[in-house]
Design brief:
By secondary structure, this protein is an alpha+beta fold. The protein is built from four helices and twelve strands; from the N terminus they run H-H-H-E-E-H-E-E-E-E-E-E-E-E-E-E. Strands 1, 2, 3, 4, 9, 10, 11 and 12 form an eight-stranded antiparallel sheet that branches. A four-stranded antiparallel sheet has the order 7-6-5-8, with no helix packed on it. The longest helix is centred in the first third of the chain and has 50 residues.
Protein backbone atom coordinates (compact mmCIF):
# COMPACT_ATOMS: atom_id res chain seq x y z
CA UNK A 1 0.00 0.00 0.00
CA UNK A 2 1.48 3.35 -1.03
CA UNK A 3 1.04 6.85 0.30
CA UNK A 4 -1.08 9.36 -1.63
CA UNK A 5 -0.25 13.04 -1.25
CA UNK A 6 -2.68 15.89 -1.90
CA UNK A 7 -0.90 18.83 -3.48
CA UNK A 8 -1.92 22.29 -2.36
CA UNK A 9 -0.75 25.06 -4.68
CA UNK A 10 0.89 27.15 -1.96
CA UNK A 11 3.30 29.82 -2.99
CA UNK A 12 6.87 29.70 -1.74
CA UNK A 13 6.02 32.30 0.87
CA UNK A 14 2.87 30.47 2.09
CA UNK A 15 2.87 27.62 4.64
CA UNK A 16 0.56 24.76 5.68
CA UNK A 17 -2.13 26.14 8.04
CA UNK A 18 -2.15 22.92 10.17
CA UNK A 19 1.61 23.04 10.68
CA UNK A 20 1.49 26.73 11.52
CA UNK A 21 -1.31 26.16 14.03
CA UNK A 22 0.71 23.41 15.67
CA UNK A 23 3.70 25.74 15.91
CA UNK A 24 1.58 28.49 17.47
CA UNK A 25 1.82 30.88 14.53
CA UNK A 26 -0.88 32.40 12.39
CA UNK A 27 -0.98 31.13 8.84
CA UNK A 28 -0.76 33.39 5.84
CA UNK A 29 -4.01 33.69 3.94
CA UNK A 30 -4.42 30.76 1.55
CA UNK A 31 -4.92 31.33 -2.13
CA UNK A 32 -8.53 31.04 -3.14
CA UNK A 33 -8.05 27.79 -5.04
CA UNK A 34 -6.27 26.11 -2.10
CA UNK A 35 -8.95 27.29 0.33
CA UNK A 36 -11.67 25.79 -1.82
CA UNK A 37 -9.90 22.42 -1.96
CA UNK A 38 -9.28 22.43 1.81
CA UNK A 39 -12.85 23.40 2.62
CA UNK A 40 -14.17 20.73 0.25
CA UNK A 41 -12.19 18.01 1.98
CA UNK A 42 -13.39 19.19 5.40
CA UNK A 43 -17.01 19.23 4.29
CA UNK A 44 -16.71 15.74 2.78
CA UNK A 45 -15.27 14.41 6.06
CA UNK A 46 -18.02 16.05 8.10
CA UNK A 47 -20.69 14.67 5.78
CA UNK A 48 -19.24 11.17 6.05
CA UNK A 49 -19.13 11.44 9.84
CA UNK A 50 -22.72 12.67 9.98
CA UNK A 51 -23.87 9.82 7.76
CA UNK A 52 -22.12 7.22 9.93
CA UNK A 53 -23.58 8.72 13.11
CA UNK A 54 -27.08 8.48 11.67
CA UNK A 55 -26.51 4.86 10.62
CA UNK A 56 -25.35 4.01 14.15
CA UNK A 57 -28.34 5.80 15.66
CA UNK A 58 -30.68 3.82 13.42
CA UNK A 59 -28.83 0.54 14.10
CA UNK A 60 -28.86 1.04 17.84
CA UNK A 61 -32.20 2.69 18.35
CA UNK A 62 -34.00 2.37 21.66
CA UNK A 63 -36.22 -0.39 20.30
CA UNK A 64 -33.22 -2.25 18.90
CA UNK A 65 -31.23 -1.94 22.13
CA UNK A 66 -34.20 -3.12 24.19
CA UNK A 67 -34.54 -6.15 21.93
CA UNK A 68 -30.82 -6.92 22.31
CA UNK A 69 -31.04 -6.60 26.12
CA UNK A 70 -34.09 -8.89 26.23
CA UNK A 71 -32.25 -11.46 24.13
CA UNK A 72 -29.23 -11.25 26.45
CA UNK A 73 -31.47 -11.68 29.50
CA UNK A 74 -33.10 -14.72 27.96
CA UNK A 75 -29.69 -16.08 27.01
CA UNK A 76 -28.39 -15.55 30.55
CA UNK A 77 -31.44 -17.38 31.89
CA UNK A 78 -30.83 -20.31 29.55
CA UNK A 79 -27.15 -20.40 30.49
CA UNK A 80 -28.01 -20.33 34.19
CA UNK A 81 -30.59 -23.09 33.76
CA UNK A 82 -28.10 -25.21 31.79
CA UNK A 83 -25.42 -24.72 34.41
CA UNK A 84 -27.85 -25.66 37.16
CA UNK A 85 -28.80 -28.86 35.33
CA UNK A 86 -25.12 -29.72 34.82
CA UNK A 87 -24.40 -29.13 38.51
CA UNK A 88 -27.32 -31.39 39.45
CA UNK A 89 -26.06 -34.11 37.10
CA UNK A 90 -22.55 -33.83 38.50
CA UNK A 91 -23.83 -33.95 42.07
CA UNK A 92 -25.98 -36.99 41.25
CA UNK A 93 -22.98 -38.65 39.59
CA UNK A 94 -20.79 -38.00 42.66
CA UNK A 95 -23.48 -39.37 44.99
CA UNK A 96 -23.86 -42.44 42.77
CA UNK A 97 -20.09 -43.00 42.79
CA UNK A 98 -20.01 -42.72 46.58
CA UNK A 99 -22.89 -45.16 46.95
CA UNK A 100 -21.24 -47.62 44.54
CA UNK A 101 -17.94 -47.31 46.41
CA UNK A 102 -19.63 -47.94 49.77
CA UNK A 103 -21.50 -50.96 48.38
CA UNK A 104 -18.27 -52.32 46.89
CA UNK A 105 -16.46 -51.87 50.20
CA UNK A 106 -19.26 -53.66 52.05
CA UNK A 107 -19.19 -56.52 49.53
CA UNK A 108 -15.39 -56.77 49.67
CA UNK A 109 -15.42 -56.79 53.47
CA UNK A 110 -17.88 -59.68 53.36
CA UNK A 111 -15.23 -61.74 51.59
CA UNK A 112 -11.92 -60.20 52.64
CA UNK A 113 -10.52 -58.55 55.75
CA UNK A 114 -7.17 -56.88 56.49
CA UNK A 115 -5.38 -58.16 59.58
CA UNK A 116 -2.23 -57.28 61.50
CA UNK A 117 0.00 -60.12 62.72
CA UNK A 118 0.91 -59.71 66.39
CA UNK A 119 2.33 -63.10 67.39
CA UNK A 120 5.46 -65.03 66.45
CA UNK A 121 3.94 -68.43 65.71
CA UNK A 122 4.35 -68.06 61.92
CA UNK A 123 7.90 -66.69 61.77
CA UNK A 124 9.60 -66.48 59.33
CA UNK A 125 6.69 -66.74 56.89
CA UNK A 126 4.76 -63.99 58.69
CA UNK A 127 6.49 -61.51 60.97
CA UNK A 128 4.90 -59.47 63.76
CA UNK A 129 3.35 -56.23 62.39
CA UNK A 130 2.88 -57.71 58.93
CA UNK A 131 -0.42 -56.65 57.37
CA UNK A 132 -2.19 -59.45 55.51
CA UNK A 133 -5.47 -60.02 53.69
CA UNK A 134 -7.72 -62.78 54.98
CA UNK A 135 -10.14 -64.53 52.60
CA UNK A 136 -13.08 -65.02 54.94
CA UNK A 137 -15.16 -67.17 52.56
CA UNK A 138 -12.30 -69.23 51.16
CA UNK A 139 -13.68 -72.48 52.56
CA UNK A 140 -17.29 -71.74 51.68
CA UNK A 141 -16.37 -72.10 48.01
CA UNK A 142 -13.28 -74.29 48.35
CA UNK A 143 -11.69 -77.05 50.37
CA UNK A 144 -9.02 -76.83 53.06
CA UNK A 145 -5.70 -77.94 51.60
CA UNK A 146 -2.27 -78.90 52.85
CA UNK A 147 -0.03 -75.91 53.43
CA UNK A 148 -2.85 -73.34 53.73
CA UNK A 149 -2.05 -70.60 56.22
CA UNK A 150 -5.23 -70.10 58.21
CA UNK A 151 -6.38 -67.86 61.02
CA UNK A 152 -8.44 -69.20 63.86
CA UNK A 153 -9.54 -68.19 67.34
CA UNK A 154 -9.07 -71.36 69.34
CA UNK A 155 -11.61 -72.56 71.86
CA UNK A 156 -9.58 -74.28 74.54
CA UNK A 157 -10.47 -77.69 75.96
CA UNK A 158 -11.55 -76.01 79.19
CA UNK A 159 -14.20 -74.05 77.25
CA UNK A 160 -12.44 -70.68 77.29
CA UNK A 161 -12.03 -68.78 74.02
CA UNK A 162 -8.60 -67.51 73.11
CA UNK A 163 -7.96 -63.79 73.48
CA UNK A 164 -6.57 -63.33 69.97
CA UNK A 165 -6.62 -64.87 66.53
CA UNK A 166 -3.78 -67.28 65.82
CA UNK A 167 -2.23 -68.10 62.47
CA UNK A 168 -1.06 -71.59 61.59
CA UNK A 169 -0.42 -73.94 58.71
CA UNK A 170 -2.62 -76.88 57.77
CA UNK A 171 -0.56 -80.05 58.24
CA UNK A 172 -3.19 -82.77 58.58
CA UNK A 173 -6.64 -83.24 57.01
CA UNK A 174 -9.40 -85.48 58.38
CA UNK A 175 -8.28 -89.12 58.36
CA UNK A 176 -4.53 -88.35 58.24
CA UNK A 177 -2.18 -89.96 60.75
CA UNK A 178 0.27 -87.38 62.17
CA UNK A 179 3.41 -88.20 64.16
CA UNK A 180 6.35 -86.09 65.41
CA UNK A 181 9.74 -87.69 65.97
CA UNK A 182 13.41 -87.42 65.03
CA UNK A 183 13.07 -83.65 64.56
CA UNK A 184 10.42 -83.92 61.88
CA UNK A 185 6.70 -84.29 61.20
CA UNK A 186 5.39 -87.51 59.63
CA UNK A 187 2.09 -87.71 57.78
CA UNK A 188 0.71 -91.13 56.94
CA UNK A 189 4.18 -92.60 57.51
CA UNK A 190 6.13 -90.20 55.32
CA UNK A 191 8.33 -87.38 56.60
CA UNK A 192 7.31 -83.91 55.41
CA UNK A 193 9.69 -81.60 53.61
CA UNK A 194 9.13 -78.27 55.36
CA UNK A 195 11.50 -75.56 54.08
CA UNK A 196 9.30 -72.86 55.57
CA UNK A 197 9.83 -73.66 59.27
CA UNK A 198 12.03 -71.23 61.19
CA UNK A 199 14.68 -73.46 62.70
CA UNK A 200 14.56 -76.26 60.15
CA UNK A 201 13.30 -78.88 62.59
CA UNK A 202 10.45 -79.78 64.92
CA UNK A 203 11.58 -80.70 68.40
CA UNK A 204 9.78 -83.09 70.69
CA UNK A 205 7.95 -86.32 70.29
CA UNK A 206 4.26 -86.88 69.63
CA UNK A 207 2.80 -90.32 69.22
CA UNK A 208 0.84 -91.02 66.06
CA UNK A 209 -2.69 -89.58 66.11
CA UNK A 210 -5.51 -89.71 63.59
CA UNK A 211 -7.20 -86.44 62.62
CA UNK A 212 -10.97 -86.69 63.32
CA UNK A 213 -13.68 -85.88 60.79
CA UNK A 214 -14.23 -82.10 60.20
CA UNK A 215 -11.04 -81.26 62.12
CA UNK A 216 -7.52 -80.31 61.12
CA UNK A 217 -4.03 -80.61 62.51
CA UNK A 218 -2.42 -77.14 62.52
CA UNK A 219 1.17 -76.16 63.30
CA UNK A 220 2.95 -72.80 63.35
CA UNK A 221 6.08 -72.32 61.26
CA UNK A 222 7.96 -71.18 64.38
CA UNK A 223 7.86 -74.60 66.01
CA UNK A 224 9.77 -73.40 69.11
CA UNK A 225 7.18 -70.69 69.95
CA UNK A 226 3.78 -71.63 68.62
CA UNK A 227 0.40 -72.42 70.17
CA UNK A 228 -0.91 -75.11 67.86
CA UNK A 229 -2.37 -78.60 67.69
CA UNK A 230 0.53 -80.07 69.71
CA UNK A 231 -0.92 -78.28 72.74
CA UNK A 232 -3.43 -80.58 74.40
CA UNK A 233 -5.58 -77.56 75.29
CA UNK A 234 -5.96 -76.67 71.59
CA UNK A 235 -5.82 -80.06 69.91
CA UNK A 236 -7.42 -80.55 66.51
CA UNK A 237 -8.98 -77.44 64.99
CA UNK A 238 -12.67 -77.63 63.96
CA UNK A 239 -13.53 -76.22 60.55
CA UNK A 240 -16.02 -73.72 62.00
CA UNK A 241 -13.22 -72.32 64.16
CA UNK A 242 -11.23 -71.24 61.11
CA UNK A 243 -11.82 -67.56 60.32
CA UNK A 244 -10.30 -67.71 56.85
CA UNK A 245 -7.23 -68.21 54.72
CA UNK A 246 -4.32 -65.77 54.44
CA UNK A 247 -3.98 -65.04 50.72
CA UNK A 248 -2.00 -61.81 50.40
CA UNK A 249 0.54 -59.72 52.29
CA UNK A 250 0.10 -55.93 52.09
CA UNK A 251 2.91 -54.78 54.34
CA UNK A 252 5.82 -54.43 54.48
CA UNK A 253 6.08 -53.10 50.93
CA UNK A 254 9.26 -55.08 50.32
CA UNK A 255 7.29 -58.33 50.81
CA UNK A 256 3.97 -57.32 49.24
CA UNK A 257 2.39 -60.15 47.28
CA UNK A 258 0.77 -63.56 47.53
CA UNK A 259 2.09 -65.99 50.09
CA UNK A 260 4.22 -68.66 48.43
CA UNK A 261 2.40 -71.93 47.86
CA UNK A 262 3.68 -74.85 49.91
Amino acid sequence: MGFHFIWFPFSVESECPICLATAGRQPHPLPKSAAMVYNGITMDLKAEQTKRIRELEEEFSDEKMAEIFNMNDAGDARVFDTRRKLMRKRAARHVANIVIAVVCIIIVLQFFAPMIVFEQSMENTLEPRDCVVLAKRAYVFGQVAYGDVVVRRPILEDGDSGTEDLAGRIIGLPGDVIEIRDGGVYRNGGRLNEPYIKDGMTEGVMAAVTVPEDRYFVLGDNRQDSDDSRDARIGFVPKDEISGKVVFRLLPISKTGRLPAQ
